[in-house]
Amino acid sequence: MNSIKSLMAVCLFLLPTLGAVAQQPSNPAAGTGTTPVRNAATVRGCLNGQRGNYILVEDNTNLVYALKGVSNKLDSYLNHQVEVKGRMLPGTIKTGVNPSKSGSNPADTEHGVDGVPFQVSDVQTDVRLIAKHCKAADQE
């Protein structure tokens, strides 16, 4: 009978402790103040585009990324090799602009290609110039 009372006392003591542990977040980075970004990536390539619609053609794979969240702030990087940090969004998006129309409506695209949407959080910190000229395809 003493062993049953001892076991009950231990259970009553551990029960609140287990409840507190169960409420802790399971994400190891949650306590560090930095949360991991889903689909985070860094891509390098040649920046092209016009009128605030920018695409990045990755150096090694020739994948096309449609940059989002950059407004028209990358004109000085056009036709330069850049490195961009951001996160890939699901799906694809039609890229390209019809020079005879204004706006960025996908129906207005001419010679568009499908690209992976790539969200940039902060142009100032997430876009970096690598070279003033894009790599030639035969140099890769």
**CATH fold-level topology of the domain at 43-139:** OB fold (Dihydrolipoamide Acetyltransferase, E2P)
- Give the termini separation: 79 Å
Main sheet specs:
5 strands, mixed, barrel
The residue-averaged pLDDT reads: 74
What's the CATH class label of the domain at 43-139?
Answer: Mainly Beta
Give start-end ranges of low-pLDDT stretches. 10-32
CATH second-level architecture of the domain at 43-139: Beta Barrel
* Integer-rounded radius of gyration: 25 Å
Task: Describe it.
- By secondary structure, the protein is an alpha+beta fold.
- It has a domain of 97 residues: Beta Barrel (OB fold (Dihydrolipoamide Acetyltransferase, E2P)), CATH 2.40.50.
- Helices cover 18% and strands 32% of the residues.
- A 5-stranded mixed barrel has the order 1-2-3-6-4.
- A hairpin with a 2-residue loop joins strand 1 and strand 2.
- The longest helix has 21 residues.
- It starts with a helix and ends in a 9-residue tail after the last strand.
Present the secondary structure layout.
Blueprint: H1 2-22, E1 40-50, E2 53-58, E3 64-68, E4 81-88, E5 93-95, E6 113-119, H2 123-126, E7 127-131
Parallel strand pairs: 3-6
Antiparallel strand pairs: 1-2, 1-4, 2-3, 4-6, 4-7, 5-6
